[in-house]
## 1
Amino acid sequence: HGYFTYDPGFVSTASCKSKITFIDGEKGVLLHRGYPIAQLATQTDYLQVCYLLLNGDLPNAEQYANFKKRVTYHTMVHEQINSLFKAFRRDSHPMAIMCGIAGALSAFYHDNLDIYDPEHRELTALRLIAKMPTLAAMAYKYSIGQPFMSPKNDLSYAGNFLHMMFATPCEEYVVNPVIEKALDRIFILHADHEQNASTSSVRLAGSSGANPYACIAAGIASLWGPAHGGANEACLRMLERIGTVDRIPEFIAKAKDKKDPFRLMGFGHRVYKNYDPRATVMRDTCHEVLKELNIKDHPILDVAVELERIARSDEYFIERKLYPNVDFYSGIILNAIGIPTNMFTVIFALARTIGWITHWIEMNEEADSRIGRPRQIYIGSPTRDVRPINERE
Ligand code: CMC
């Protein structure tokens, strides 16, 4: 088998060169285009981060205003998309709807799309940034049987999403600035994370020259799993299942038991062997939001804080360098601001779309970009001959 390097899970394989995001997992560092994530999360907004990822640097005031105008121009979706939603069962998981609807966008933008033209690639990015909140909110409205709310382009990116989620034709939704800021920060913290499973899926799908909207659907599918973006939903469900602080030791024991498939959701990371820098900002934001919303008793937060304390002083977690990751506190914030649990991973997908499409663009900019084609170590049967059907065992 000497020809290929065997690397299950791609633990030590660099699949590409990239200028977008840098991670030092040992030190807990995350930089986008050189800027530390904590500074971006506290001193910029999500649309500035989108601009940064796409263009390589933060925008000045004029560039920002222009970018915002270009994005908001695309917030509406084609009327036929409304009919598409109606094909789904009302109780469909919203991630299932998002896989289908994002893929279906390729049917609207295919024949006139030239992926070799940089302007077309940029237009694809703008459309996706603009339309994902609209589609995500539509998935929610559909599930609760309320009419879709059109985007309001004079609101901020996060404010518009909240409006489409919570306003109704009979009642205006007044955006709470605390909630708006917290949601925007959650978007920033999820914007990109180099070659994770979903981004690698988008790149691999895109490496064949496939339609970019279909590639984004591949990313959404990959993100859905509980080992990846689905962990935020799974984490909140776990915290609710634990319920009270006195039950934590029972769940810690389950997580350590190698015969039990249970894992502490929101703990551990392939790359971070130190505190996930996104989790640090998320934890601070969580405390801020609950304080500003005047939520004094939050039993789930109490369970989370105590679970973190116990796990971090436990030999099993210390030895394996298992720290809280980005998904550990995000669910508590989303829950406090009224987002239903099955929408958590949709929020992640919405925010990660900028990362996916930036990687897709970067890949397409390379002159020597090749189709992704991993090899394998074959361990099946040696060569044998087909026998007539009535002579087979
Ligand atoms: N609870 C209990 N044990 C764990 C956990 C956990 N959450 N995570 C890892 N371990 C153990 C694992 O059993 C193994 O132990 P041993 O060496 O005795 O066999 C060791 O730690 C190494 O784990 P691994 O599975 O080899 O690590 P990995 O790099 O393949 O997996 C992970 C990384 C994130 C999938 C994993 O830590 C996990 O399943 N965590 C829970 C799910 C989660 O929170 N995912 C979100 C990740 S961050 C956001 C994102 O990517 O979307």
Note: The chain has a mean pLDDT of 95.
## 2
Amino acid sequence: EEKTRSSYEQKLQNAQHSVSKKLLETALAKQSNLIASADVTTTQELLELAEKVGPNIIALKTHIDIISDFDYEKTIVPLKALATKYQFLLMEDRKFADIGNTQELQFTSGVFKITDWADFVTSQVIGGFESLDCFKNVGVVAIIGMSSKGTLTTNSYREEALKVALSHPNVIGGVSQNPIPEEILLFTPGVNLADSGDGKGQQYNTPEHVFKTLHTDFIIVGRGIYKSDNPEQASITYKNEGWSAYLNSLEK
Ligand code: 5BU
């Protein structure tokens, strides 16, 4: 017999971290488990995308270092205003992968000052438990397994990575293409309704597949939305697909 998953309501009751609570509350309020990945390279594209998809997403995932005209006042200030207007969180997919001291500098300094605006960030756990101590004021999504072909996140790596993630109080979730324990939230990229890959190693699954087989909590969709002719409509499609796949995964 297949194990049933916990609902967002059940997870909210058990959530310890303020960011986990905010994500789950937002998911329930907007009936969405969709995170749009804004892998665009100008401030204008970023803000236009946020404006279009904002009502349908629970978080906007950024790679802030690919914005060619980044300027804190022109990029982050209006982005934060849109996040407040449409009630979504900001997830910076920085994938920190260094010693704690360097990660702390990368998190707080430079031009991006991630600590000032991101609600949560992604981090590798390859630097060990203490490397995650610096992310005190945000939630951390730990990279457990990657979606790309040939990734080195083998079974034994994932097992060790999970030990770090599950024991660290700053960690709210993990990125993985495999099921993980329910104590932390599962974020799954590599989701696309039209394609199975991108010719550069990315491997895609459908929302239905990831909710059914992984019991994921949140799907991350990049090109399926921002490359679409109509990103607003695409965000509605992925939102609806994700939500019904979640509801289906509750029955069993
Ligand atoms: P796509 O356009 O839907 O393929 O974008 C996927 C996004 O998720 C992109 O920003 C990646 O950097 C990110 N990602 C991923 O695709 N796979 C992973 O294992 C991790 C992150 Br970790």
Note: The chain is about 40% helix and 15% strand.
## 3
Amino acid sequence: SVILVLHGPNLNLLGTREPAIYGHTTLADIHAAMETQARANGVRLESFQSNHEGELIDRVQSAREQGVTFIIINPAAYTHTSVALRDALVAVAIPFIEVHLSNIHSRESFRRHSYFSDIATGVIAGLGAQGYTLALEAALMRLNATT
Ligand code: DQA
């Protein structure tokens, strides 16, 4: 089975981007930790980051043909704006966990609303890079329970 990890805009800058909010961990570090965890559980992991809304939508659409069974997604700023990315996730009907490095509820008020949370299996926010490994752990448990 394949788990897809999607990262939205500006997450390619992790490590140097507002480290007081997002930490010093890079996207490569996050991917390496998740890769170890996935391999230990015999699951294939694919990661994709884009600064372009349409590319993220295309990746979600191709996930269905590819047999992706679970998605872990940090939509970044698209969390608060993208009906189109939300619609893509509904269209493919692949369960997903929404992850945010920061606690979006303790920041500017415009970050408190997410177009994804009400259709997510679960939401993790405020735990930094650890949020991704916790999300993967939860995804692995759910996949084992259903297959
Ligand atoms: C973020 C929170 C968003 O509000 C912000 O636009 C991001 C990152 C997070 O991981 O904390 O780019 O999704």
Note: The chain has five helices and five strands.
